[in-house]
Specification:
heterodimer, A: mainly alpha, 6 helices, 74% helix, B: elongated, disordered C terminus
């Protein structure tokens, strides 16, 4: 059996992330954004299945659904978590150090990407990958 | 607080516009500029794509490692190439062929270029191509070559009727 994620898991996680980021933008809470950054970090370093939203999906939501029709490569999802982590760290630091405009911009950027992923299944971070490689070629 | 609420209202709206726009353009085969116009039409050689060109058409797919739609595209185009005579599917790892990527203006993967029998690019699409558009692109590429068009005109028509 091919390894892979149930593709609905990352989209569920993106939906929860969108809600959290929306709350961050409205309340300006640097701590909440820092907590979201921690969630991104777990997803990026330990894999999407280990992160809280992914775990909740696997344990609570997935058993109530039919098995997935296909599976998704976890690597792009992890890459996207890294991108989210970068935005969240910058945003949280900005909020907590008294630069709320920067904080809101970073949170809004992450919200844009998370919402696109949740609503349309689009992975912005994955799309950036080739543009990044055109500027910073891989070795070998 | 109020600014935050405004942002929370605007960001999803903007994202929805982007998502819907992308949905409309994804997979659509678009024409490539007429070679008669300004610069010569872009083309690829068998050496560059790593395989001989198809007699009717060649699908050249640019892929990257982190790309689930690339796998879907590979399966779809591989199926079309298998079903039709004279159609070849070639895949290029974009990361390791940046010269081609830059020359052909590839910014996303999957990007699919449709070549005629001479290797001239006649159509291109980003995102997973729609199957009926891929088939139509083959017909267009094959129509470009004079003898191929006349010879396979009848079989091409039968072929597309069967698919419809």
């Amino acid at each position: 059996m091919t390894k892979g994620l149930d593709p609905r898991g990352p989209r569920f996680a993106a939906a929860v992330t969108s809600v959290v980021l929306a709350v961050v933008v409205v309340t300006g809470s640097g701590w909440l954004l820092a907590a979201q950054a921690a969630v991104f970090a777990v997803g990026a370093f330990a894999g999407p299945g280990a992160a809280p939203y992914g775990m909740f999906y696997r344990r609570v939501v997935a058993p109530r659904l039919a098995p997935p029709a296909e599976r998704e490569d976890p690597r792009p999802v992890r890459f996207a978590q890294f991108v989210g982590l970068a935005f969240a760290v910058v945003g949280a630091a900005a909020y907590l150090l008294g630069a709320p405009v920067v904080g809101m911009a970073a949170a809004a950027g992450a919200l844009f990407a998370a919402y696109l992923n949740a609503a349309f299944g689009l992975c912005l971070g994955c799309e950036m990958y080739l543009r990044y490689r055109r500027v910073v070629p891989a070795r070998g | 607080m109020l600014t935050g609420l405004a942002v929370v209202a605007c960001v999803p709206a903007a994202a929805t516009a982007v998502g819907l726009g992308r949905r409309r353009t994804d997979g659509r085969m678009r024409p490539v500029a007429d070679s008669a116009a300004a610069a010569p039409a872009p083309a690829l050689t068998p050496d560059e794509i790593g395989t001989a060109l198809g007699d009717r058409a060649t699908f050249v797919q640019f892929s990257t490692a982190f790309c689930a739609p690339c796998r879907t595209t590979r399966a779809l185009l591989g199926q079309v190439a298998g079903e039709l005579d004279g159609v070849v599917h070639a895949e290029i790892d974009a990361e390791h062929h940046l010269d081609l990527v830059r020359r052909l203006g590839v910014t996303r993967t999957p990007t699919v270029l449709v070549l005629d029998a001479e290797g001239t690019v006649v159509k291109r699409a980003t995102g997973v191509p729609r199957k009926h558009e891929a088939l139509a692109a083959v017909a267009l590429a094959a129509a470009g070559a004079p003898e191929a068009g006349a010879r396979s005109g009848a079989s091409r028509a039968t072929g597309s009727e069967a698919e419809a």
